[in-house]
Amino acid sequence: MGVQIEAAIIDSMVEHARLEAPLECCGLLMGQAGRITCLRRMRNLAQSPVRYQMVPGELFQFFKDLRGSGLQHLGIYHSHPSSEAYPSATDIAQAFYPDCIYFILSLLVPGVPSVRAFSITEGGVTERAIQRIRE
Predict the structure, then answer these.
(1) Which of 114, 123, 126, 37 is nearest to 75 (CA)?
(2) What is the tens place of the pLDDT at every residue in 7-44?
(3) Which CATH class is domain 3-133?
(4) What is the distance between the alpha carbons of residues 113 and 59, in angstroms, rounded to a whole number?
């Protein structure tokens, strides 16, 4: 099963990854009825090129804001500045939201970012087709 996401959201994720390189970037995705329409960039507390950790206070504020927004938390994204767009062992171990789609943006090939989406449940990884929606 695929995942619907607005093309502008993908563009914004790629822009975020490029701005933060060579460190990983991270953020949260929201929408309704399984369609991703909103993004919130988060700061990477780890400040690392190989892992990310969202700032706890920002994460708390995100969920607080989400309650009154009418939106649902549908996804999480982060970048791999120098490796392929596939979940690392750390990504899999720290996939705490089984109902979310995990997007990974690779900047491995300069000028040609790769964006892939995955379901990660109980250590299992399933790639999801990305359906870009244009408004």
Answers:
(1) 37
(2) 999 999 999 999 999 999 999 999 999 999 999 999 99
(3) alpha beta
(4) 26
In which residue are the tokens 């959201």 written? 9
Quick one: tokens of 79?
Answer: 């970048």
Q: What is the pTM of this model?
A: 0.96
Where exactly are the structural domains of the chain? Answer: 3-133
**CA 91 – CA 50 distance, rounded (Å):** 10
What count of other Cβ atoms lies within 10 Å of the Cβ of residue 92? 16
Residue 33 neighbours by CB distance under 10 Å? 8
* Residue 109 in tokens: 């090939």
Here the tokens at position 66 are 């989400």
Could you tell me how many residues make up the chain?
135
- Which residue in the block uniquely carries the two structure tokens 């960039």? 41
Radius of gyration of the chain (CA): 14
32 phi, psi to nearest 5 deg: -140, 150
